[in-house]
Structure formats: C-alpha cells, structure tokens
Automatic annotation (TrEMBL), chain A:
It comes from the Bacteria. This is Fe-S oxidoreductase. The keyword Metal-binding applies. PROSITE patterns: 4FE4S_FER_1, 4FE4S_FER_2. It comes from Thioalbus denitrificans. Residues 68-97 form the 4Fe-4S ferredoxin-type domain. InterPro entries: 4Fe4S_Fe-S-bd, 4Fe4S_Fe_S_CS, Helical_ferredxn. GO terms for molecular function: 4 iron, 4 sulfur cluster binding; metal ion binding.
Automatic annotation (TrEMBL), chain B:
This is Nitrate reductase gamma subunit. Keywords: Cell membrane, Membrane, Oxidoreductase, Transmembrane, Transmembrane helix. The keyword tRNA processing does not apply. GO terms for cellular component: plasma membrane. Residues 77-212 form the NarG-like domain. Its main location: membrane. The lineage of its organism: Bacteria, Pseudomonadati, Pseudomonadota, Gammaproteobacteria, Chromatiales. The chain crosses the membrane at residues 6-25, 71-91, 111-130, 142-162, 190-211. It is found in: Cell membrane. It is a multi-pass membrane protein. The keyword Plastid does not apply. GO terms for molecular function: oxidoreductase activity.
Length: 513, 246
C-alpha cells in the first residue's frame, strides 16, 4: 500500500476547509488495468491497441455525435470555477486535477485540439493539446478518481455533469483496450453468471435457506426468502452484496420481514440476481442494456406484476432512470412499441415500475399494512447518508425531492432517535461516500480514504453534537465503503447499517405463514 | 465613401455573418445530437412547465451559481444583467423611431455600463487571486475578459468623457442595416469600441461564449424527470432498445 496519511478531522465544524491546490498530489493513483479475460466478454479489445491514438480520437468523435451532454458540456464551460471546491476528491486530496472542471479539461483539451476551430489553429491560446501517452495516462488516472456522484453538476451554472464526462472518457479508454480491471471483471461475471459476486443459482438458494433458518431462530417466525417463484406478484432485484455479508444481509432480512408482515407475494430471481449495473460506470450503453435485459427477461418468465429494487444507489439510478429506456421495464410505452408493451401489459399500473423498496415500505407504513415498534431501536442514535445516485440522479415518490423525504420517514417510523447531518452536506448537496462509480477496489484505497473526508467531517459533527452511533444508508457501495473507511477516521466499523435493518428490527411480524 | 467607413462596414457584415452562421451551425449540432438517456440532475421538475421554470430561474437568476459561489454569482450576475441593459440601450442605434421601452430603460442602461465593468473586474480578480480558478484559466479566458473590459471602457468613455457624434453613428448603423452606407465618424474611442465588438462577435461561435446557447441544451437542466412514466427513446438507440441484446 502506498504511503499516505489519513486526513485529520476538525473539531466543531460540519464542513472541511477548502485546501490550497497541490499539483500532482494524486498523479500516482491508478487502478489495475483490465486483462483480455475481462475485456473480451464485454466486446472491448483485449489490450491497448496499437493505433490507440487514432482510435481514441475517432471514438471521441463517435461519442460527440451520440451524446448531446458531451457535445454541449465540452463547449459550454466558462471556467467560472464554481465547481472547483465541490468535489470530495479535491477536498480530500488537494490535487487540482480532481477539481471537476480540471477533470473535464483533461478530455476537453483533446476535444479542442481535434474537433474545434480554435484548438486546431490556436492550441496554446485555448489550452488544447495533442493526445499523447502522457495525456492518456492522465485520463486513466484521474477518470478513475471520480465517483460519478454528480455533485459538481448541481452547482454548475450550466449543469455540466463531470460524471458524464468521466463515463465518456472511460468508454474511450475501454474502446482502445485500456479499461479498468475492477469494473470490467465484475461486468463479465454478470454477463456470465448473473451477479457481481459470481454467485451461481444453487449457492444463492443455499444462502437464502440459511437466512430463513437464522430468522426462524431469532424470531420464531417462518419468514421466507423465495427465489424463482413463478406467479409471485413482486420481483425483487437487489444488489448481490445483500446476499453476502453484513451490514447488507441484515437489510435483506429487513425486506423479507416487511414483505412477510404485509403479506405480500414476492420472489428473487437467480437469473437476474443483481441490481447493480457497473456498465453505467464505464459509460457502455451496450453492456448496460445487456445487464438491464436480464431484469426484463426474468420478469417475463416469472410473470410478475411489480418490480422492486433493493437498497443500492447507482442501481436505483439505472433502474429508475434507464431500465424503461433500455429494456422497457417501466410504464408508458407507445402502443406500437411491441418490445416494451410485451412486458408492460403484464405489469400492474397502480404501482410505479420499478419501485424502490423504501417507496414500498413507506406506503405500507402509511396504509397501516405493517406496524413498527420504534423502541426496538432505542439503543441507537441514527443519522442518514444520502447516496449520490439516489439524491442527484433519481427520485422516490411522486414529487421532486421525494428521495430525501421517504427514506427519512421510513427511518423515523422505525426509531425514536434520528438526527440529520448539517444541511449543506445532505440532500442534493450530499457528499459521496468516496467509493462509488467503480472505485470500490483495494487498489484505489488512498483515493477512497481521502475522498471520504468531507462525509466523515459531517459525520463527526453530528456524532459530537448528538452522540450519533449509527449511520444508515441505502446503497451497497456506500455500506461497503463506510465499513472499510470508518476505522481510518476513528469511528467504529459497525456503525454503518442498512435502512431496512432498522426497519427489520422494528417491524412487528404478523402471523402470515 | 472613406476607406475607414468601407472597412468597418465590411467588417461588420462579416462579423454578423460569422456570428449568425456560426451560432446557427452550433445550435443545429446541439439540436441534432440526441440525449439517449434521462439524466436530469435531481430533484428535477416532473412536468414540462416545471422545466421551463427551472430554466428560467437558471438563465435569469443563475440559480445554480447562487448555490455554489456567492462572489462568482454576484460578479457574474452583475455583469450579465448590466450587459443586457446596455445591449437594450444600444437598440436606439438600430431603431427609428426608438421603441418606447428602449427609451424608458435609457437611464438604467447608462449606468449599467459601470456595473458591467465592475462585474468583469470582480470576475477577473477571482481568476487571478483564487488559486483554483487561476489553475483552470487558459490565456483565452483572460483575453475574453480583457476584450469585454475594453469594450466597456471605450463605451463608457464615449458617454462620460469624450462624447462621440452619435447622430452620425446612428446614420452609419442604419445605413448598414438598409444597405445605404453613411460615413462613420472617425473618432478613436468609437473605432476601437466597434473593432472590439466585431472581434467579440467573430469569436463567439468558436469560444466558451457558446455557453449562451449551450445552457438551453443541457440535458441535466432541460429534461423532465419522468422516466418511469414514459419510455424515453432517442434516434440512434431506439432500434437497439426495440430488441433484445442477447
Ligand atoms: S462527479 Fe463527483 S467525483 Fe466526479 S468530479 Fe463531480 S463531484 Fe467529483
Ligand atoms: S461550474 Fe461549470 S462552467 Fe463553471 S468551471 Fe465548473 S464546469 Fe465550468
């Protein structure tokens, strides 16, 4: 592991101080490069192609024609600097290339050189440069120091979203065989086996049976975790981390208890056993679609009426914003849209598709269909972390901002002691956990620890002020990341929990067998 | 017709053609390029009228900038609002008789010039003094500021220091518009002012000034947040999305 220090937290302030820039502070950070085994199943060249320069520039041209976002964003930045202090990776590392605008500029300077009049004829004047190996390596390094959290896009006067730029850059890198191992290896597993863990059907079934036994021992109630049950009403798609370890698995138990208490008919799918869609992180439309199609196929085969998504941030973005487009998983397809209608006519129009597990639990609480005993969580003092992709790239409920209200209402229905972090660090201004966007890998530990700084600072403030001891989240990546980085900042690793663990601990199990 | 008049007349025809042609081209590129996925920065409006309001707040009040940096917002907003007033004030050179609301706004436009230069100097000082903003500034970012400050100062000096012959100037401008050229007053301040304006018009479509049309095409700001309710399809992706990938 590289030699670095965990940044120090300050006393009595919720927000970190903006550092002076330290050029090159993180230039050594780069994740492992993907090998042919990881690349080929995704349709990418096995390794860096010989004519990479030419190929990368051509790919850039292709992307410019396909994505209005990229075309408009590369042209429109006025270098006002408003985004410069908004990125947690800049705040935590002080490396100026981690300022959103500077991160964009890595791509923009090449765009200008090859695709604009000013950059072709006056490169020095507008800061345009040739695509050299050095620039390419800078791309590889710094586009893997962006968690695609969209915080910068909230604050940019033109809505310029560096996440879009990072995705485009990674797509270019992948197209020349210079992709990242962590993401590509995982996507290949989903294509082959169906989930990020590479957990095959029988292993999944065994895990779920064990969990049923555990719940029975704990509560004396037969709570089921059904899989591949044809004719069930609800198909639950959840991040596979939920099948794997704490704190995730306690969230899964929470979902099951809620379904049980409400008497809902539901099932998991061993074919579509992953809500995460890492293809989004690498900007690969084709792979993203291939992953989304698994959900469509499972829903068709099982004949379900509703599709629900478990606790995961980027998965909720992919589901909420993209599934309808990519695979017709939603409502409102045109009458002549045979492909989408095939699934949509089977779905219950009274429920949103896809629906977030928190939306469903919230409704059940509102309707009195489940009862919670808040005192079950009286030993906890809870705060909530808004996950980026839920906060800034999707919604819950039927009004803007429902994604902030609904999870908090669910938490408040499940426990008596809830305290929000400082207003500038939550809701749309929330700070990323530091591990999103395909950075949740040990080879990026330094970036992850430093990038967590602003969140940790806000957490410290609420811990000091209100003696908070529990950090609840609705994202598998956030949970994994926090479990890993909390100890670096002297917080206990186990303070991170699933929101549905709080619910699961409080829900009163009826006698629905 | 003097050489000077002819030069400036040709310059302005060329600058106008480049400005309009360039912008039309860029806008057509933005309009033609699809946004294949729904990517509004949320919370986002769930209706089209909501999006119009959001865009309105963004363009008129710089809502997002206000959230992010109060100083940049103050200087930036001061500059743009003043510029708008100044431009309106300049309409009197293009209209005969002058529209009533243009004359009504004259007194504001007159002083707006000061605020415009002040706003620009504020923005420029941030570009020099704040290390983060200095780092991201290319020579062109300073030059554009210099150009705008130059336009502002030469304009102000004609109003408040050495008056120029605005009657002949107006005749020149109207002459350009109706292809009936009239002599341009040979006043140094005026010539410099007009030259800088022409340069600004020419670089507009090939510079970051494209943020002006760009903001309206920004998918994070102009999309309706309704992906679950309607199936969003874009031309290149639609055939793909109407079949299975496997
Ligand atoms: S998307 Fe997030 S991580 Fe990436 S540059 Fe913007 S603020 Fe930083
Ligand atoms: S806030 Fe937007 S326009 Fe300003 S520097 Fe950042 S990306 Fe560019």
């Amino acid at each position: 592991m590289a030699d670095y220090e965990t940044p120090k937290l300050l006393a009595d302030v919720p927000v970190v101080v903006v550092p002076n820039i330290k050029p090159g502070a993180m230039s050594h950070s780069s994740p492992y490069v993907a090998k042919p085994d990881h690349n080929i199943p995704l349709g990418f060249p096995g390794e860096l192609v010989e004519n990479w320069q030419e190929a990368a520039i051509a790919k850039m041209g292709d992307i410019l024609q396909k994505y209005r976002s990229i075309q408009v964003y590369l042209d429109s930045c006025v270098k006002c600097g408003a985004c410069t202090d908004k990125c947690h990776y800049f705040l935590g590392t002080a490396d100026p290339k981690n300022m959103p605008v500077a991160r964009q500029d890595l791509l923009r300077k090449v765009y200008r050189r090859y695709y604009t009049f000013a950059g072709k004829y006056f490169p020095k004047l507008v800061g345009a440069t040739d695509l050299t190996k050095e620039v390419l390596d800078d791309w590889y390094s710094y586009y893997h120091q962006c968690s695609e959290c969209r915080r910068c896009s909230v604050y940019c006067p033109y809505g310029i979203d560096t996440a879009e730029i990072s995705m485009a850059a990674r797509e270019i890198l992948d197209s020349i065989g210079y992709g990242q191992k962590y993401c590509n290896e995982i996507i290949a597993k989903v294509h082959k086996i169906g989930n990020n863990l590479g957990l095959p059907g029988p292993a999944l079934e065994a895990t779920l049976e064990d969990l049923e036994d555990d719940i029975k021992t704990d509560t004396g109630v037969d709570v089921k975790l059904p899989v591949d049950q044809e004719g069930a009403d609800i198909l639950l798609i959840t991040p596979s981390a939920d099948f794997f370890a704490e704190p995730h698995i306690d969230g899964l138990i929470g979902y099951a208890k809620v379904f049980h208490a409400a008497g809902l008919s539901w099932t998991l799918s061993s074919y579509a056993s992953e809500a995460a869609n890492f293809s989004m992180f690498i900007g690969s439309y084709d792979n993203m679609k291939r992953q989304a199609e698994r959900i469509r196929k499972a829903a068709l085969e099982l004949g379900v009426k509703r599709i629900m998504v478990g606790e995961c941030g980027h998965a909720w973005r992919a589901a909420y914003s993209f599934w309808n487009t990519l695979a017709g998983v939603g409502h409102g397809a045109a009458d002549d849209d045979k492909y989408a209608r095939m699934l949509q006519k089977q779905l219950d129009p009274r429920f949103p598709v896809p629906q977030h597990i928190c939306e469903s639990t919230y409704d059940l609480i509102q309707q009195g269909a489940i009862k919670l005993d808040k005192s079950a969580n009286d030993h906890r003092r809870v705060t909530f972390h808004d996950s980026c992709n839920v906060a800034r790239a999707s919604r819950m409920g039927d009004m803007p901002g429902g994604q902030f209200i609904i999870p908090r209402e669910v938490i408040k229905a499940a426990c008596n002691n809830f305290f929000d972090m400082a207003p500038e660090t939550i809701h749309e201004g929330t700070f990323c956990c530091g591990g999103g966007g395909g950075l949740l890998t040990d080879d990026l530990m330094e970036v992850r620890v430093k990038g967590a700084l602003p969140r940790m600072q806000a957490l410290k403030y609420v811990v000091d002020e209100h003696k908070v001891d529990t950090l609840a989240a609705i994202c598998a990546i956030c949970k994994t990341q926090f479990a890993k980085v909390l100890p670096y900042y002297d917080f206990p690793m186990h303070m991170i929990l699933s929101v549905h663990q709080l619910v699961g601990d409080a829900v009163i199990l009826g006698s629905n067998d | 017709m003097s050489f000077l008049t002819v030069t400036y007349a040709v310059l302005f025809y060329a600058a106008t053609a480049i400005l309009i042609g360039g912008l039309a081209y860029k806008i057509s590129v933005y309009a033609r390029t699809p946004a294949p996925l729904k990517i509004p920065t949320t919370p986002a409006p769930t209706t089209t009228s909501g999006v119009v309001m959001r865009m309105g707040r963004e363009v008129i009040f710089f809502e997002s900038l206000f959230k992010s940096s109060k100083w940049t917002w103050l200087f930036g907003w001061m500059f743009h609002i003043s510029l708008a007033l100044v431009l309106i004030r300049h309409l009197r050179y293009f209209t005969e008789p002058v529209w009533f609301w243009v004359s009504w706004l004259q007194p504001f436009g007159k002083y707006a010039g000061f605020f415009m230069v002040l706003g620009l100097l504020g923005l420029w000082s941030r570009r020099v003094l704040v290390d983060r903003v200095r780092y991201i500034s290319a020579p062109s970012d300073h030059l554009i500021l210099a150009l705008l400050v130059g336009i502002g100062i030469t304009g102000l000096s004609m109003k408040f220091v050495a008056h120029t012959d605005i009657v002949s100037l107006k005749a020149f401008v109207l002459g350009l518009m109706y292809f009936d050229w009239q002599p341009l007053p040979a006043d140094f301040n005026l010539l410099l002012h007009l030259l800088l304006v022409a340069v600004l018009m020419i670089i507009f479509p090939v510079s970051k000034l494209l943020h002006a049309p760009g903001v309206f095409f920004s998918p994070t700001r102009n999309q309706v947040d309704n992906p679950r309710e309607t199936r969003h399809l874009a031309p290149w992706a639609a055939p793909l999305d109407s079949s299975s990938a496997e």
